[in-house]
Structure formats: C-alpha cells, structure tokens
Write a structure and sequence with these properties.
Elements lengths: L7 H9 L8 H9 L8 H16 L8 H16 L2 E2 L12 H7 L1 E2 L1 H13 L5 E6 L2 E6 L6 E3 L5 E3 L1 H11 L16 H18 L3 H14 L4 H14 L2 H13 L4 H19 L1
Parallel strand pairs: 1-2
Antiparallel strand pairs: 3-4, 5-6
Length: about 280
C-alpha cells in the first residue's frame, strides 16, 4: 500500500476516527511517515513486525509468564537485532518515523517503545505507554510497578528509578507527580509523536513539513487551539494567507487576552490587507 503525499491526512483521519482502543498505532504511525516517504509500502512495513514477532516467539517457552516474555522480546530486539536509542543524533527526524527505525534500528523513546508494543501485541503481550515528562517508557498492562525503557536497551526500571530519570531530565525543575505514570491513550501517544516532529521541523524552519504535521495533530485533537494558532502562523510563513486567517480568527475568538490577543489581532489585520490587495 502506497499513498500519495496529499492522501496522508485523509488516510490518517480514517485511522483515528475509530474508538481510541481500536486505533492501530503501528498502522497510524506508518501513515504519518507517508508524508515524507510517499512510496512507503505500509503493508510491507507491518509484515516486518510479524517477522520480528515470529523470531521473538522462538525465544520463549510455552509456559513463559508475562515478564519472561517481555524479557525475551527485549533481549531479541535490543541485544540480538541491535535496535538502540540514537543518542548521537537524537533530533534527526528519521528517529521519529517508524519505517526508518525498522531500517536503521535507531530511534527515540517513543518509536522504540512502539516497536516493542507492536512486536509484543503479536505475541498476545499487552504493553502500554507511559509518557513521563521528557521520556517515554512502557510497561505490561497488568504489572504496574515495573517499567521498560526501550531507549536504554529495554532495561527494567522501578517507580523510584522513573522518578530519578525525570528529575535528571528536568534538572529538578519539575516536581514529581504520580500522574506521570498514567498510561497514554492511543490518541495521546500519536499526538506526542507528532509534537516531536513538529518541534524538530519548526527548529529547522521546515515550514511545509511542520504544516503537514500540524494538520495531522488537528485530526487527533480538533479542539487543540494552540495547534490551530501555530498552524496559522506557519501558513502565514508559507504565504497561505486565507488558511492562516481562518485559523487565527478561530484562535482569537476562543477568548485569548492580553499581549497575545494584541499580537494575533495585528497579524489578522495584516492578513486581511494582504488578501484584499
């Protein structure tokens, strides 16, 4: 299955229109990648997960318990195959595209976590994602006090070690809250993946790529006003003045105030002048 770049948003919309629990994360993540890789064969990529799961299963005994299965999956993926966190080039956008992770065996926490989740799913092992600030880990759906860190080779972490990791990442500026260990919904997971890409492309001033990612973010959460504002600003940079005006008027009408309202109002006036010229 290949998609034209213009079809990425409509295909993604269909993928996330179902109830959250029915969203196929692997499939949705590969649809995201089609905006960058229009010739991507999604079914072929999905079959790679099938192959990985088939081999991982041979590393398990018939009576393996969930934790033993998780250990077998981690050992196979990270020690035998060599998937690992790309700490040398962390912000390379390739780390956020699942097809690239499958090809290069390099990724960031969220894509390596998805790799594990997809392989485990095919072996009837349910893993859930834990979106801590600055770092994403996973755990078994029924084991709430032990976490897997795919970015660091699938090592197991206790809750106290998760707290230490967040404290280190945030340099102690963010007080710990137990809600950080709440599993992400599928839409929250996809939104986090997309926000990673959005941040990278904005820092690179790759506005066309950022615009497409924000289109996808608004499919996940149409009520995300900050995303609508950001898309309006990016469309202004791209010269898409009508689209920019539509988004910024909606954002202004949402009830913002103060200096931000003043700045957005001035930009709206400028857009109206440009459109009437």
């Amino acid at each position: 299955m290949t998609l034209e770049r213009s079809d990425t948003v409509s295909a993604f919309r269909q993928a996330v229109l179902v109830p959250d629990s029915q969203i196929d994360l692997g499939h949705a993540a590969l649809i995201i990648a089609t905006h960058k890789y229009p010739d991507l064969d999604i079914q072929r990529e999905l079959s790679l997960f099938d192959s990985l799961a088939s081999v991982a299963e041979t590393r398990m005994s018939p009576d393996s318990d969930p934790l033993q299965k998780i250990n077998a999956i981690s050992t196979y993926l990270f020690e035998e195959i060599g998937f690992r966190g790309n700490d040398q080039d962390y912000y390379n956008p390739k780390n956020s595209y699942l097809n690239e992770v499958l090809s290069t065996r390099l990724g960031i926490p969220i894509t390596l976590s998805l790799l594990c989740m997809e392989v485990a799913k095919r072996l009837s092992v349910e893993l859930v994602s834990i979106g801590m600030p600055g770092h994403l880990v996973i755990r078994h759906s029924d084991i709430t006090d032990l976490f897997i860190d795919p970015f660091h080779g699938g090592i197991l972490l206790s809750q106290s070690e998760c707290i230490e990791r967040v404290t280190s990442i945030t340099q102690g500026r963010l007080p710990w809250n137990d809600s950080y260990l709440t599993p992400l919904s599928n839409t929250e997971f996809l939104a986090r993946m997309l926000r990673n890409l959005k941040s990278i492309y904005l820092k690179e001033s790759s506005y066309r790529e950022a615009q497409i990612i924000m289109n996808l973010l608004l499919e996940v959460n149409p009520e995300a006003l900050s995303e609508r504002r950001d898309r309006g600003i990016v469309n202004f940079q791209l010269g898409n003045y009508r689209d920019s005006l539509d988004d910024l008027e909606i954002y202004l009408d949402s009830g913002i105030s103060g200096s931000e309202a003043s700045s957005i109002t001035k930009l709206i006036w400028k857009l109206r002048d440009l459109l009437s010229a």
